[in-house]
Amino acid sequence: MRPGAYNSRGRRGSTLRNNSGDSVLAGARRHRPDYWLLILMVTMLGIGLIIVYAISPALAKSSGVSNSYFVTKQLIAIALSLVAFAVTSRLPVGVWRQVSRSLLIVAAVATLLAIIMPVNPHYPAHRWVRLGSFSFQSVELLKFALLVWLAGFLTQRAHEGTMADVQRTLKPLLIVLGVVGLFVAGVQSDLGSTGVIVAIMGVMAFVAGLPMKRALMVLGIIAIGVTLAVAAVPYRRERLLAFTEPESHCLDSGYQACQALIAVGSGGMFGLGLGKSVQAYGYLPEAANDSIFAIYAEKFGFIGSVSLLGVLIAFFYRLKLVAERVPDEFSRLLVVGILTWLSVQAFINIGAMLGLLPLKGITLPFISYGGTSVVFASAAVGIVFQISRYTNFTSPLEGRRRRT
Predict the structure, then answer these.
(1) Is the pLDDT of residue 29 over 90?
(2) How far is CA 31 from the centre of its chain?
């Protein structure tokens, strides 16, 4: 093993270290991982597949493809996501710190490729990297890479005691925010993903120990940037206006929001049933992607929607438990970043479908149709699954054994 490499094996009660002697998960001992993370993730993947299967005839009719087209693609995406989970759940957590800069460079190159490549006439935004028949959304890789890099960066600054230092900490963070705002919000016109990235960076920095005064200053700068980003682009102003006065814009800029509310309301208490969706037949845009929660609510009603929210909350709670119990700062920040990413994205998606937030084009993690978001989200959960093997966790049964 080369110098600086990480050894993933550790005896019960031992401290895992690299060959340089640096603690990887100080004070941790290996135990069973949190299988609830895997169970809940697979449950959500299954729910998403069921919805895609149910609305495939409607999607196929509007797209001119076979009824099995969308289900087959989603099955492939789920298979790839499980492979990604299996790989990342076996990698030592220290590997991510080693490759964080390289991963961020790859994400930056992918973002630039998406910008310079020809766009799809149906989706004119520069968000996709297309290599023959293979394509992926660059911003999903960017979210993943950025939180991995940020965990290492903030861990180093916390170790140095320079979290309050403007030059060492705040300036690099603001530069990264500026670049993300320029390319993702500006060139790619993806304000929703920019908001998710800002949330990831803000929460991770605060948890790492960024002083409140510095945090408020950054929030002020972000608020100014968001205001300018909305004011500078006509369709964003129209979306904001449609959000504030939806009933006046149901035939133009507020069409998707109004149709989403109709779908949610049509579900009633118990839903119309799995095969009886109306909105999927050309009425609700992005029925399998951004609007999939509205389709789910139409099919399964209030009871089904509350049940799905329960699954999401349980999943985020398990992530929170891992973050609280991991003794290593780098690992803790990784879990916090992943928790922020997935929970904020779910909140924005569901909030928009319920008319509580403006539409942002954000997918619902693990449930929305599409390969890129599912694969990277599953890879992120695989990292948490690996970290959960080394948390300061004692089961009630083990506690009773110790007392006896």
Answers:
(1) no
(2) 27
In contact, 17 and 242? CB cutoff 8 Å: no
Question: How do strand 16-17 and strand 128-131 relate by DSSP bridges?
Answer: unpaired
* Nearest alpha-carbon partner for 97 in 25, 197, 166, 35: 25
Q: What's the rounded Cα separation, in Å, for the pair 119 and 125?
A: 7
The CA angle 106-110-113, to the nearest 5 degrees, is 140
List 197's β-bridge partners, or say none: none
Looking at per-residue pLDDT, the higher value among 131 and 287 belongs to: 287
Other Cβ atoms closer than 10 A to 119: 14
Please state, in angstroms and rounded to a whole number, the distance separating the CA atoms of residues 184 and 114. Answer: 10
What value does the CA radius of gyration of the chain take, rounded to a whole number of Å? 22
Whole-number Å distance between alpha carbons of 101 and 99: 6
Determine the Cα–Cα distance for residues 302 and 319; give it in Å rounded to an integer.
26
* Structure confidence by residue, pLDDT tens digits, 278-329: 888 778 888 888 899 999 999 999 999 999 999 999 999 999 999 999 888 9
Q: Where are the beta strands (DSSP E) in 186-292?
A: none
Name the token pair of 172: 């690099």
HSE of 191 in the Cβ direction (CA atoms, 13 Å)?
19
Q: What's the start-to-end Cα distance of the chain, in Å? A: 42
Mean pLDDT of 182-207: 87
User: Nearest to residue 143, comparing CAs of 344, 348, 386?
Assistant: 344
**Segment 332-349, tens digit of pLDDT:** 999 999 999 999 999 999
